[in-house]
Structures are given as structure tokens and as C-alpha cells.
């Protein structure tokens, strides 16, 4: 238990907001009470009202949190009050925190500890480090503080389910994590090498390798649930509009929920049909009671009724959730939004899509949504034409306020919303010319243009990996043929396609041009390991590690790929992410 024995007796516990949901999954209030926790407080910028003689703080290792504790301690000193103070840093303590304690003059007044919380199982195949700040800290600020934590989490899994004999990855952060992890493996080398691994293949990927997927609207059920209700630590709060009562319910969303398990990875257009069929089947099971004798009725009540009632309750909640999603999406004109996104992904009607974004901004639909669409336009077009960039930026600041100037700075710095340098607009000319000539001739033209302009990386990658499916007629969402179903058949997630290709090829051979367009930093096993059966089946269980966050759309896509290839993907992510979370991370200011 994280509450340490060095602070026996009654105590008040102050918890940082980000750690409340993870802690609740591990130790609820009654368990905390058993460990003499009297009252619980959220760490926030308010006067402390605690009357306890012992205060315990469970926080992330941030300077702002240490200063918060210092403020309480120094206020007590000024009032002549004596208490015991303990700070528990999770997942680890940093030297910077101790320096701030010294600067604030309270180093000798508090004791410090660590809660080495690295992995939270959200489901049978999903592990989260619950570090949403990882994305901003590393990709925007260049802060590498969490690298060793991810490496430790990998080593923990390696010691239990490894050894990991095939490790692939791409991205600067992925490479750093891999190198730190290898050092940990060498330090703790034991007889595990002789063990048959339960997970043999690992793939590490940086979030900035594929921004496009994270920026797209999610249309699988679990993704839409997250976009609409915001899933936190595997659970969601359903309000009265879903529960059809004056009460709210907190529901755990995982494979234990039989209804959710069957629809979580489905395209939303299939969900209502499934739920209505489920309701009819459930009613048929209830109707069986009518012809039963007393003995059969007794068995029915003791063995089946409880399960049917639970399933009925969950079914009602999911039907309510679907109705709520439909109302919100209809109000937002969701189909028109998806049409614009698909145009951006395919590179068609860019001018019309830009006009749609301008209208979105002018109508002040949502600051987060407007930013997301601007970023999607920028990333798919390899930056905005200077005239469009200035125009969209000016309209956005007029609609949502000049305080977003810093947001634009952050988005530019991280590569989500950039302005093309003079000459880069030639990529449009190049793409038109390439359609008129053979690939070989287009390659020569490309070389000629490269000295003047850089090609649109997403367009080039998309073409080489076939991310935009070419289908005759309508894409069959009920019987999908590939991972593109998670975006209505319009686009195959880049991150998932890279994993598929590398695992299929057993390395990066043949993907050199894709790697170049992705700015390199790829790695693969240095020594090829011989396998009895060099097919997908031999890989069985693959650990997909996302650094900077993973979306539910990517999880659904890789679950689909696993079924198709006869293997299973396990997911380890620094946190669950979405387009809204990414945009919000650019708005926040944390120390």
C-alpha cells in the first residue's frame, strides 16, 4: 500500500487531481480509511482547512506541487503550528523537487517517499502509465524526465512475460526508451533468457510519428464514447441524459461488461442494430419464464435472473449513451465534419475544406474543434500556405481571444500547425505533374524540385503505404476488410500500418523511403533470431508501446489486425489520448 508506515495514526491525505482516478482503481475510500486516512482533499489553489496533526501529499513530481506544500508548511510555521508532513511522489521523486524544498526552507520539515506506480491495467489487453503530461513534457518542452519511468515499466513486463527478443520502433523518444531499457536489462541479467517468452515482439512508437490519426474524429464506439463523455482510467460518468433518471452512474468500461465487449470496436453505424437485437434476445430469455414449473423457476431465479438483470442494466445504459451521442453529433452536423476530414486526408477540395474551417471559427462552434481542424489541414498539407496561415490565425484570435497567441506558438513548435516556407507550395505542382507521368519520370521531377521545396510528407507516406483505400462502390462497414473501417473506410491509421508492415517484413527493409519521410530514428533487432515458423502466427502476442498517447481508434484497428493475422496485440501507453486531449495539452501551462 502506498500510505507509508512512517506516518502512523490519523492523517489527512491531499491528492493531486491527475492521481485521483488511478488511485480509485487501486484503493477506494474504505481501504484508505483502514490505513488511518481521516479526510481526503484535492490539491488545488485554495486555503487548507485541515485540522489534522499529520498531512500526507500524493502528487506528481512537479515544482508547482512542491511549492504548494511549501506554502502550507510555511503558513503553519508563521502561525506557530506544529505538524508532521509527508510528500509521496508518483511515480518517482526528482532531484529538482528536493532543490525546491531547500529553496523554500522546508527541507528538514518534510519527509519524502515514492509510489512507484508505473502500470495500471485498464483491461485484459490494455496497460496505461496514466501520464497524460508525457505528451506535452517531451514533445513540446523537450523534457526527458519520464523516459526512465517508461523504460522501467518495459523492464517490469520483460521480467514477467519476456524476454523480449524482437524489439522494433521508430521515433527519437522510442529510441531513447529502448536504449535505457537495454541498460536495465543488462544490469539485471538473469536466467530469464532460457524461459519461453509469452510476449516476444515489441514495437515502440512516438506520437509525433503519426499526428494525423490522433487528429481525426473517432467513429468506433469506444472512441466516440471517449470523445463524447471522456473516459478516465477505464471508467465513464453517465449523467441523467443517459441514465434516464435524476442520478448519474460511474460505469467501468472493459471486457467484463458483456454488452460493451461486443460493440467497443464496432463502427458506430453498426451499434444500434446490435443493441436492438440484443434487447430482443434478452426479452426472449425473460419470456421463457412463462412455461416453467416451480423447479425450473427456482433454477432460473437462482442461476440466470441476476445475470439477465445486470445485462439489462448495461444494455439500457449503452442504448442511452448511443442516443446521447446521436443527439450531440446531429447537432454538430457530424456527417459534414467527416466529409471535410476525408477530403483533407485524400487531398481533395482543399479550398472548400479551408472555407469550412473558416466558417467553423466564425460561428464559434468550439475553440478546441477549430484548432483540431486547422492542425489536421496543416499536417496533411505539410504546413499551411502563408496567406492561409495568417488568415486562419487572425480569424481564430478574433473569435476566441488573443490569449491563444501562446497556443499558436506551442502548436508551431510541436509541428501540429505550421506555416510553409516560401517555395513549399510547389509541392502541389509536383503532385499534379506526377499524375501525368510515370512514377520513374515523377521521381526525376521530384529530385529537381527537392532543392526548391520539401514534399508533403503525409501525402508521400500515404501513397507509399496505401493509407487511402481504393474501393469500388461503398466501403462495407459491417464486414470490414482492413483497418480503415475505424475511419469509415476513408483512411488506414498510419501508426498501425507501420507496425503491420515492419512486423510482416521482420524489419525496415523495403521501407527506407517511408523512414526517410518520417525523419528516421528507426530500430530493429541487431541480431536476427531464427524462428521455427516465420509467420504472423509465430508472433502470437505483440506489445505495442505508444509514447505520448494512444487513441481508442488505434487500439480497435490493431485488435482487428490481430484477429486477421491470428495474433494478439497488448497495448502499453503513457496515457489514452484523443484530438481534444492533444489540443488541451497545448493550452495548458504547467511547471
Give the tags.
591 residues, alpha/beta, 7-stranded mixed sheet, 14 strands, globular, Sec1-like, Sec1-like_dom2, transport
Q: What report would you give on this structure?
A:
With 591 residues, the chain is α/β, with parallel strands linked by helices. It has helices at 17-26, 29-34, 63-78, 95-103, 133-140, 147-161, 172-187, 211-215, 221-229, 240-243, 258-263, 268-287, 294-331, 334-346, 350-362, 367-380, 386-400, 405-414, 426-436, 439-450, 457-465, 494-505, 512-517, 536-539, 552-565, 579-587; strands spanning 11-15, 37-42, 54-59, 84-89, 110-114, 120-123, 126-128, 166-170, 201-206, 235-238, 249-252, 522-523, 541-547, 568-573. Helix 14 packs antiparallel against helix 15 (350-362). The longest helix has 38 residues, at 294-331. It is globular. The two termini are 28 Å apart. Mean pLDDT is 85; it is low at 425-455.
Sheet/helix structural class: alpha/beta
3D shape: globular
Contiguous uncertain segments of 5+ residues: 425-455
Give the helix level as a range of percent: 40-55%
Q: What's the number of helices? A: 26
**Radius of gyration computed on alpha carbons:** 26 Å
Strand content: 5-15%
Span from first to last CA?
28 Å
**Total strand segments:** 14
> What is the residue-mean pLDDT, rounded to a whole number?
85
Largest sheet: 7 strands, mixed
Order of strands, widest sheet: 6-7-14-13-9-8-12
Membrane topology: Peripheral membrane protein
Protein name: Vacuolar protein sorting-associated protein 33B
Keywords: Protein transport, Transport
Pfam families: Sec1
Amino acid at each position: 500500500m502506498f500510505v507509508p508506515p512512517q506516518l502512523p495514526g490519523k492523517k489527512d491525505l491531499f491528492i493531486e487531481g491527475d492521481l485521483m482516478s488511478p488511485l480509485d482503481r487501486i484503493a477506494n475510500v474504505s481501504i484508505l480509511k483502514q490505513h488511518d486516512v481521516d479526510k481526503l482533499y484535492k490539491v488545488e489553489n485554495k486555503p487548507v482547512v485541515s485540522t489534522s496533526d499529520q498531512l500526507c501529499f500524493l502528487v506528481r513530481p512537479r515544482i508547482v506541487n512542491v511549492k504548494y506544500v511549501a506554502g502550507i508548511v510555511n503558513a503553519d510555521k508563521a502561525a506557530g503550528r506544529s505538524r508532521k508532513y509527508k510528500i509521496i511522489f508518483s511515480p518517482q521523486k526528482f532531484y529538482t523537487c528536493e532543490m525546491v524544498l531547500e529553496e523554500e526552507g522546508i527541507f528538514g520539515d518534510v519527509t519524502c517517499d515514492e509510489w512507484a506506480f508505473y502500470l495500471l491495467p485498464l483491461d485484459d489487453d490494455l496497460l496505461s502509465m496514466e501520464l497524460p503530461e508525457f505528451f506535452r513534457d517531451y514533445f513540446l518542452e523537450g523534457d526527458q524526465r519520464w523516459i526512465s519511468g517508461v523504460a522501467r515499466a518495459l523492464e517490469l513486463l520483460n521480467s514477467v512475460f519476456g524476454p523480449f527478443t524482437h524489439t522494433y520502433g521508430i521515433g527519437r523518444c522510442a529510441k531513447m526508451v529502448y536504449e535505457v531499457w537495454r541498460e536495465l536489462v543488462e544490469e539485471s541479467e538473469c536466467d530469464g533468457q532460457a524461459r519461453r517468452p509469452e510476449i516476444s515482439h515489441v514495437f515502440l512508437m512516438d506520437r509525433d510519428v503519426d499526428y494525423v490519426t490522433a487528429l481525426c474524429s473517432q467513429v468506433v464506439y469506444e472512441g466516440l464514447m471517449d470523445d463524447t463523455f471522456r473516459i478516465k482510467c477505464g471508467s465513464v460518468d453517465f449523467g441523467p441524459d443517459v441514465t434516464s433518471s435524476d442520478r448519474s452512474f460511474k460505469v467501468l468500461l472493459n471486457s467484463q461488461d458483456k454488452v460493451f465487449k461486443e460493440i467497443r470496436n464496432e463502427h458506430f453505424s453498426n451499434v444500434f442494430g446490435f443493441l436492438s437485437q440484443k434487447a430482443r434476445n434478452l426479452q426472449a430469455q425473460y419470456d421463457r419464464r412463462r412455461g416453467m414449473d416451480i423447479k425450473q423457476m427456482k433454477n432460473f431465479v437462482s442461476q440466470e435472473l441476476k445475470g439477465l438483470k445486470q445485462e439489462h442494466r448495461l444494455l439500457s445504459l449503452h442504448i442511452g449513451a448511443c442516443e446521447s451521442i446521436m443527439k450531440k453529433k446531429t447537432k454538430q452536423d457530424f456527417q459534414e465534419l467527416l466529409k471535410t476530414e476525408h477530403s483533407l486526408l485524400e487531398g481533395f477540395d482543399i479550398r472548400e475544406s479551408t472555407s469550412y474551417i473558416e466558417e467553423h471559427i466564425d460561428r464559434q462552434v468550439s475553440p478546441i474543434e477549430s484548432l483540431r481542424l486547422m492542425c489536421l489541414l496543416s499536417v496533411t498539407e505539410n504546413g499551411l500556405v502563408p496567406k492561409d496561415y495568417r488568415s486562419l490565425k487572425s480569424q481564430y484570435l478574433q473569435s476566441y481571444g488573443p490569449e491563444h497567441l501562446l497556443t499558436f506558438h506551442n502548436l508551431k513548435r510541436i509541428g501540429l500547425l505550421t506555416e510553409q516556407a516560401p517555395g513549399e507550395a510547389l509541392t502541389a505542382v509536383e503532385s499534379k505533374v506526377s499524375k501525368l507521368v510515370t512514377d520513374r519520370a515523377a521521381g526525376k521531377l521530384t529530385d529537381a524540385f527537392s532543392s526548391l521545396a520539401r514534399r508533403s510528407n503525409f501525402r508521400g507516406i500515404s501513397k507509399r503505404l496505401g493509407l487511402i483505400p481504393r474501393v469500388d462502390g461503398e466501403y462495407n462497414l459491417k464486414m470490414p476488410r482492413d483497418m480503415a473501417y475505424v475511419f469509415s473506410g476513408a483512411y488506414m491509421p498510419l501508426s498501425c500500418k507501420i507496425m503491420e508492415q515492419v512486423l510482416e517484413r521482420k524489419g525496415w527493409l523495403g521501407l527506407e523511403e517511408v523512414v526517410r519521410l518520417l525523419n528516421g530514428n528507426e530500430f530493429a533487432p541487431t541480431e536476427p533470431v531464427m524462428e521455427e515458423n516465420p509467420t504472423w502466427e509465430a508472433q502470437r502476442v505483440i506489445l505495442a508501446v505508444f509514447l505520448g498517447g494512444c487513441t481508442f481508434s488505434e487500439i480497435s484497428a490493431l485488435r482487428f489486425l490481430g484477429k486477421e493475422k491470428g495474433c494478439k496485440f497488448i497495448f502499453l501507453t503513457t496515457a489514452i489520448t484523443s484530438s481534444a486531449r492533444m489540443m488541451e495539452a497545448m493550452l495548458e501551462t504547467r511547471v
